[in-house]
Amino acid sequence: MIDKQIVCKNCEEKFDSNYRFCPYCGQKSNDELTLGVLFYNTISNYFSFDARFFKSFIPLMFKPGYLANSFIEGKRLLYIHPAQVYLFISVVFFFFFSFISRDQVERMDKNFKETMHKADVIDSLSVQTSLDSLGGNEAIENIKSKNAIKGVVGKELINVTDSLENSITGKKIEPKTVLGFNKRIVDSLTKAGVKDDRILEAMGMEKEASAFQHKLYRQLLKLYRQRNGGALVQAFYDSIPLAMFILLPIFALILKLLFYNRGSFSHHLVFSFYFFSFLFIVFSLLIIADFIWDVPALVDAIFMLSTFFYLFMAVKRFYKQGWVISFFKTNIAAFLFLLLVIPLAAVIVAFGAFMFY
């Protein structure tokens, strides 16, 4: 009896109907699209959430450098791919991290608005109290709102009204300074409908300012007007995943310089993928623990110290050098990365978040 031939929907090759999977491409012969199939394929293809992940988890956590060695030696189907494990674990970490960042964003937004409100109140009272007692406040407000002095606009208008205030009160009223500029000047020019370019000049921007300086002052004015410091912090946190993806090859480059004759750059990149995956797992566990109870600072310190010990053992196993030289090079790598690369990256990310939030 000849078995019935069917055509694979994926590669369009013919094969016997008694096969459950296509012998040419491996797709299931009767692969009906259901919600289960859809989501399984998504998770499997993008995160490789299969038996290899669980087989890789224990060595990743408790056998430093083992997975990197296995991958370099050619065992690339037995364990999960280094880039895939990094992608999956980083997504999990930043999911948990989003809960912490959300609280900090809300707190920052609230504190920033309270600070700006206090500055407004203090600045208003410092002028209002002295002017009301002498009956000069109404005249000054009319000058500011109606621009009664012809030909006097912008910063010159503020100088005129400040002079009138000083003559009425008999003393100099110091304006409140926030974010590096005179807030009363900015507030008055904004109420008078002056164009932003004039306001930026009043804030201290030179007329011949470059496009970069113009953008910087405009972002500063935007932050002052919107008073949403939380949005700035959120922009910073949103930039961290990209920054980490850039920091990882930099860490691999440091290892390449320290172990120049120990493989190509791709070898060090494999090591870095697995090590950063371990870091994300540790940080995720700390975040989860913090949700359950208030983790003491000593416990946090022990966990952080364990990451250095893990790196040391991974370096020893992967690069196959002596204990002393491995410990020495691990310290150099940690020093360069933690005290030079990460602080510089943090400054760049924070500045970028401010410029583009």
Q: Low-confidence stretches at least 5 residues in length (pLDDT < 50)?
A: 129-136, 146-161, 163-176
Average pLDDT level: 75
Main β sheet profile: 2 strands, antiparallel
| Number of beta-strand segments | 4
Separation of termini? 71 Å
Order of helices and strands: EEHHHHHHEEHHHHHHH
| SS-based class | mainly alpha
Give, in spatial order, the strands making up the sheet with the most strands: 1-2
Count up the domains: 2
Report the portion of residues in β strands: under 5%
Number of helices: 13
> Could you state the oligomeric state of the chains shown?
single chain
Q: What is the helix content? A: over 70%
Radius of gyration: 31 Å
Shape: extended
Written description of the protein model:
The strands form two sheets. A two-stranded antiparallel ribbon has the order 1-2. It has a two-stranded antiparallel sheet with strand order 3-4. It has 357 residues and is an all-alpha fold. The protein folds into two domains: 65-104 and 230-356, no CATH class; 136-229, no CATH class. Mean pLDDT is 75; it is low at 129-136, 146-161 and 163-176. Helices cover 72% and strands 3% of the residues. Keywords: Membrane, Transmembrane, Transmembrane helix. The chain crosses the membrane at residues 77-100, 240-259, 271-289, 295-313, 334-356. This is DUF3667 domain-containing protein. It comes from Snuella lapsa.
